[in-house]
Amino acid sequence: MRFVVAVKQVPDTTLIRVDEHGSLIRQGIPAILDPYAEHALEAVLGLKKPGDTVTVVTMGPPQAEAVLRRCLEIGADEAYLLADAAFAGADVHATAKTLSVFVKRVVPDATLIICGKQAADGDTGEVPAELAQMLGISQFCYVTQLKRNGDGFLVTQDYGDEQRDCRVPAGSVLSVAEGDLNRRLPSIKRYLEATALPITVLNRVQLMLGAYSVGLKGSRTKIVESHAVRTVRTGKIFDGTDPVKAAAHLKEML
Amino acid sequence: MLHIRELEPDSPYLIDESKIRGHGVRLLVPDTEADVIAAVRDAADHGIPLTVSGMRTGVCAGCVPEGGDVLTTEKMTAVTGVGRDGRGWFLRIQPGITVRQLNDFIRKKGYAQVVDVTPNAAAALTAEMKTYFYPVDPTELNSSLGGNIATNASGPRTFKYGPTRDWVRRVRVVLSDGSTVDLTRGQVRAQNRTLNLPTSAGLRTVHLPTYTYNRQVKNTTGMLTEDGMDAVDLFIGSEGIFGVITEADVYLAEAHPLMSNILFFPGDRDAYAFAAEFRRCGISSEFLEFFDSGSLNLIRASRLDNPRFTEMPDLPDYAGSALFFDLPYGPHLTDDYAQLAPLIAAHSGSLDRSWCGHELRDRERFFAFRHAVPQSIFDYVARLKGASPGIHKMGTDMSVPLDRLDEMMDDYDEVLKRYGLEYVIFGHIGNGHPHVEIILKDLDELNRAKQAYTELAQRAIALGGSPSAEHGIGKLKTDYVRLMYGDAGVAEIRRAKSELDPQWILSPGNMVTR
Q: Does B360 reside within a domain?
C-alpha cells in the first residue's frame, strides 16, 4: 500500500505572541511540522506494514524541507517538496489544485491520501475536502481512529455532536483530527537514515501546472482586510461555598 | 525602603527544600543596597544574627535561621547594566533575580532600560544576531542568582560550562560592619594565602585556610582557598558567612541549536562504562546524565497513574539503564554519531535503542524525562507513606574523579546493600557525580542511612572526591567539612569568618559552627 501524507510547515503557534496592534509577532518563532499533520503521519505509521510506502508531500518555500526531513526522521519513506515562486500566496483552492495534480502525476497509486484536519496557522480545514473533490474520490474528515480492514480501512469520525464509524475504500482522502499526545521519538539510527534520504523538489513546470492555476493567481479568495478581535469577558464570580445559595443564583440566571 | 515583618512560626522564610524548619524573629526585605547596609548595621549594633535568604531552593538549610532575623533579597530582582569585556557580554544583576527571570530577560532583549557598563553595550547587544543565555542550570530555575553565587551552584550543564564561579565577573558585597566591597575579577589577588580587601571602610585582611581545595572534581565542601586566589572567589560559594551579595556581573554564553539524545543500555554498568569512554572521546556535550534501572522502573510505575507523565514516550522494555546528553545540532552531528556508534555497541547499546530530537517541543519531552525521575521518587515515597507515615528519602551529593567512578559505583552498591537500604541512582555521571536517593521506610532505616552516608562520604574523599559536590554544606553537612579538612581546616575557616565578621552575625551556622 502507498500512503500519501500532505503536511505543512507552520509557525509554532504555542509560542506566537501578539503585539500592541494585535498583529502576530512571527519573528524569532520557530517553524515546525503542523501538529495536525504530525497526527496524520503518526496515524499512517501506525498502520504501516513491511512493503508499504509512506510518502510525504508539502507545498512551501525551500525552507519547508525541514518539516519533510522531520517526517522522514519519524518514519516516512520518501518526501516531495512542491516549491516554486509561483506557488506563493495560494489559497485553499490553489493549494488543493497543486496537491491534486501532484497526486495524479506522481503518486496515482495512492491507497490513502491523509491530511491534518486543518493547519495550525491557517485553520481553514478545507484543503482535504477540496482535494478529494478535485480528485473525484471520497473524503472522510475529522478522523480520530484509523484501522485496516482487509483491502480498505475503518475510521471513526468525530463531528463534535456525533461520532461515526465508517468503512473506507482504498483511494480516499482522510483528514485526521487528533492523535496520541504521546507521539514517538525517532531513534538516532532512524535520524541518520533520514538524513541520507533524498527530498525530491518539484516546481510548477515539472508538475505541468499552468501559471494561472497556482499561487496567488490561481486563488479564488482575496483577503481585503484582517484585524484582531478583542473580546472582553464579562463573567461574574459568585461565592459557591453555600450550595443552597449557589443553586439559587444559578436558577436565577437560567 | 527596608520592609520589616514579624516571622510567624509557620513562615515559609523559616524553611527551605531540606524541609528543616528554623526559628527567627523578623523578616527584613530590602529594596536597595542602602537598605541592606541599614539592616546589617542594625544587626551589628545589636548583635542580632542575620541569615541571608534567596529563593529558599537550597537543600542544606543554608537560608534557614537558627534565631535572629532573616534578610531576603527577593525584592532586588533587577538587571541594572550590560557590558562587554575581553571575555564577552555580561549583565549586571541584583541578587534576587532568578535563573528563569534572567534567561527570560535575555531572550526578550530588555536591554533598553539598563545602564551601559561599557560604552554602547545595550544597543550593541540588542543588535546582535547571535542568541545568548546564562548557562548555569542549577535544575531549580526559580533559584536566585544571589543564592547561586553564594553556593557556587552547579547542575547538569556544569559538564560543559563549569559551576557558577566560572561565570561571575564581579561581586559587590555588604560586609558585617555595613561597609561595602566591590570586586572585579583580576583586580585583587591573595598574596600567597592572605587577601587584603579594599572595602569602603579601608583595607580588611583575611587569612585564607592552608588546606588544599579540590578543584579536580565538582566540589562545594568548605571555602575555596588557593595561593593567589582572586578576591571575587572568596564570596562565591561562601554560603553568606562573609557578606551579603548586593550586585554581581555574570557572563552570558552563546546558545547553539542542540540535539537531545537518550541511549538505552541493558544494565547500569554498561551505561556508566560507556559514560567514561564518552567523556574521554572528546565529543562536546552539554551534559551527561545517568538513570539506573531502579530510576527507570520508578518512572514506569509513575506513568501508570501520574498525569504529569502523559507526554513522556513509553519506556521500551529493553531499557535497563539510560544516558541523556545533548550534542551540537549541525553538520558535525553525523560525524559525532559515527564516532560514538562503536563505543555504544561495545557496551551492549545500539543507535537503534535510543531517542533523539532537535525541535523545541521534542527537547522539552527529554527534559520532562529528566525531571520525571525525582518526581517518580516522590510518587513512590508518597505511595509508601500511605503504609508508613513519616517515611522520607535521603539524597547523596558525592563526586569523584571520573577514573575512580567505577570504584565509587561499586561502593554505592556494596555499602547500601550491606545496610539493607533501597536506593536509586541518577544524575550527573559526566562529572563523576551521580545522585543516590536512599528511600527510607522507618526510623531504623534513617539511622542506617546516616551511617552508610558517612561511610560513603569517607570513601568519596579517599577516592579523591568530595562529600558535597553541589548542594553545599549549609547547616546539615558541617561534619563533612571536618571529614575533609580536619579540625585544623575547620579552625582556619572559623578564623577567616571571625576576621570578616567578628560577631558572627551573618548566616551563622553555615559551613562551620562557632
A: yes
Phi and psi at residue A95, in whole multiples of 5°?
A: -65, -50
What is the distance between the alpha carbons of residues B5 and B70, in angstroms, rounded to a whole number? 10
Cα angle value B1/B3/B6 (rounded, 5°): 165
Nearest alpha carbon to residue B299 among B393, B391, B392, B375 = B375
Cβ B394 vs Cβ B19: under 8 Å: no
A99: three-class secondary structure by DSSP: helix
* pLDDT in the model for residue A21: 59
**What is the full DSSP assignment across B129-169?**
-S-EE-----S-TTSBHHHHHHHT---TTHHHH--GGGGEE
Domain count of chain B? 1
Asked if B361 and A182 come within 8 Å (Cβ–Cβ), the reply is no
CA distance B123 to B111: 7
User: B315 or B69: which carries more pLDDT confidence?
Assistant: B69
User: Which of helix, strand or coil describes residue B121?
Assistant: helix
Residue B359 sits at the chain A interface (C-beta within 8 Å): yes
**CB distance B355–A189 less than 8 Å?**
no
Closest Cα of chain B to A9: distance in Å? 13
- pLDDT in the model for residue B346: 96
Return d(Cα B61, Cα A209) in angstroms, integer: 72
Structural domain contains residue B160: no
- Among B469, B466, B157, B147, smallest CA distance to B285 is for B157
Domain that holds residue B415: 258-462
Does the beta carbon of A88 lie under 8 angstroms from any beta carbon of chain B? no
Residues in A 173-202 with any Cβ partner in B closer than 8 A? 181-192, 195
Cα–Cα dist B266/B321, whole Å: 6
CATH of the domain at B331: 3.40.462.10
Strands B115-116 and B79-84: parallel
pLDDT digits (tens, 9 = 90+) for B368-405: 888 888 888 888 888 887 766 666 788 899 999 988 99
In a domain, B509, yes or no: no
The CA distance from B440 to B419, in Å, is 12
For β-strands B422-428 and B392-395, DSSP reports them as: unpaired
Please provide residue B198's backbone torsions phi and psi, each rounded to the nearest 5 degrees: -80, 85
- B334: closest chain A residue by CA: A192
- Contacts A32 to B, Cβ<8 Å: 359, 361
CATH number of A2-224: 3.40.50.620
Contact at CB, A192 and B334, closer than 8 angstroms? yes
Mean pLDDT of chain A: 87
ipTM associated with this complex: 0.81
Q: Do A181 and B261 touch (CB under 8 A)?
A: no
Comparing B87 with A19, the larger pLDDT belongs to: B87
| Mean pLDDT over the full length of chain B | 93
